[in-house]
Amino acid sequence: MFDWEKNLRQITDLYGLSGEESPVLQWIQQNISPYVDETYINGLGSYIAIKKGKGLSKARLMISAHMDEIGFVVGSILERGFIRVEPRGGVDPKILQAQECWIRDIQGEKIPCVFSTVPPHLIQPEERSKVPSYDTLILDTGLEENEVRQRIRIGSGIVFKSPLIELQSEHFAGKTLDDRSCIVISMAVANELASVLHDWDIYFVFSSQEEVGTKGAGTSAWDINPNVAIALDVGFGSQNGYEGLPLGKGPGIGIGPNFTPKIVTDLCNCARTKNIPFTLEPAARPGGTDAGSIQIVRGGVPTALLSLPLRYMHTPVEVLNVKDCKFIVDLLTAYIKTLDNEYLEGLQWS
Question: What is the pTM of this model?
Fold first, then answer.
C-alpha cells in the first residue's frame, strides 16, 4: 500500500529552494525508479521519469509537478553576525517574525536560525501598528560574526523549518506542501500504472524553478513535445474568510483560456464515471502554475490543470487533506486509461 504520510513527511523535510532543487531531485530519483522505465535530468535541472506505454500510438502525456519551494537568500551579513534576507518566491513578510528556518552553509549543511522579533514589553506605541518588511527583518543563527562570515555567503539559501504534523480527519500541515504533495501524487500514479495496460507513454516531469517563473516546466515541455500535458499544483482552499476549493471534496479542475476544453470535459467525465468529487476552478488568465508556460511551447500544447486544495499557501503551515491526493490519483489513472490513438484525433481546441 502506498504510504502517503511517510512520503509526504520525507519530501517536505528536504531543502529545495528555487534553483537549488538537487536534494529533492535525488529523493525522487531513489523512490520513483521501481515504477518507470527511463529517467533523465534536463539542462535546467528538471527531472523526467518515463513510463512506457504498451500501444502503438507513441503519443506522450506529460504530468508536471514542481520540486522547488519558496524561501530567502542572504542579502547581507551585519554586525554581531545577524543576517538580512531577500525573498526568493512569494513570501509575505507579515508572517515571518519569530519563525524558524534553515540556512544552507557553503558545505551544504543546514544551520538552524530564527527571524528576530521585539518582545511586546519593548515595542514603542508608535511602532505597534507598523507592518514588518524585509528592510527590518533579521535572521539570528546564534553564531558569532566571524563564524557566520566563514560558513555563510551572500546568496546562501534559506527555507522554513517546519516538520509535517498530522491534524485531524486526514489533514496534514507543514511547509512546502506546495508543491511536494503533487510530487507524491505523481509517484502514486506511477505506482498505480504498474498494473494498468496503458497505450501512451507517460512523462512524469518534476520541474525546477516554478516559484520564480515556471521555468522548468516550459523547458521540459519544449524537450518532450507532449501531445497532452496536465499540470499538478495546489489551489486556494476554503478557509476562514475565503471560499475556495473545499478540502476533502476532490481536486479543482481548471477551466478558462489556459486549458483545452476537450481535456477539461474528459477529466470531468472521468470523475463523474468514477464517482470522484471535483470542483470547477475558473481562471480568466494563466496563473502561476506550470500550465501557463507549458501551453505556449512550440505551436501550443493541449493543457489542463488539476489543483489540490490547500489552506494557508506560501506559509510554514500549509494544510491539505490526503483524501484529495487520492482522488487526483484515481482521476489521473482513469483518464490515462482513455488515451489511445483515436484520442489524438479529437484534440482540436474546440
Answer: 0.95
